[in-house]
Amino acid sequence: MINGPLLHPPLLHALAAAGHGAKILVADALYPHSTGAPATASRVYLNLCEGMVPAQAVMDAVSQSVAVEAITFMATAEGKASETVVDCQQRLAGHRHGNGQTIAWSGLERWAFYDACRAPDVCLLIATGERRPYSNFLLTIGVP
């Protein structure tokens, strides 16, 4: 079920077609959009120009529109959360999905993240204009 502030028709369509357990990739401008997700995944390009649309804005809008139960992020080369990830964790702190649980966060190193994003359950790639490196998120849709 879709709730929230989204107005973008292709994005709404792709989210409405996704179900429980499906995954959504929110990718920065540096991500390999054409090869970094299954060919069957819908692709929505919001990367109008550098910085537009930022990953944080996409994360806010998507998390208000579908129940997000888990978020996996691409860890930095040092194995840490990037500035964008920390910002998103702070903004989404306290968000709960359908069963009342808070969103589970985890990180994967770059190559493991790419592998996870190419899995067949990734149904949507959203390309952002985010230029800060390691600003990539794989969201798992839960039960509303």
From TrEMBL:
It catalyses: alpha-L-fucose = beta-L-fucose; beta-D-ribopyranose = beta-D-ribofuranose. It comes from the Bacteria. This is RbsD or FucU transport. The keyword Iron does not apply. Pfam families: RbsD_FucU (PF05025). InterPro entries: RbsD-like_sf (IPR023750), RbsD/FucU_mutarotase (IPR050443), RbsD_FucU (IPR007721). The keyword Repeat does not apply. Keywords: Isomerase. GO terms for molecular function: D-ribose pyranase activity; fucose binding; L-fucose mutarotase activity. One of its GO terms (biological process) is fucose metabolic process.
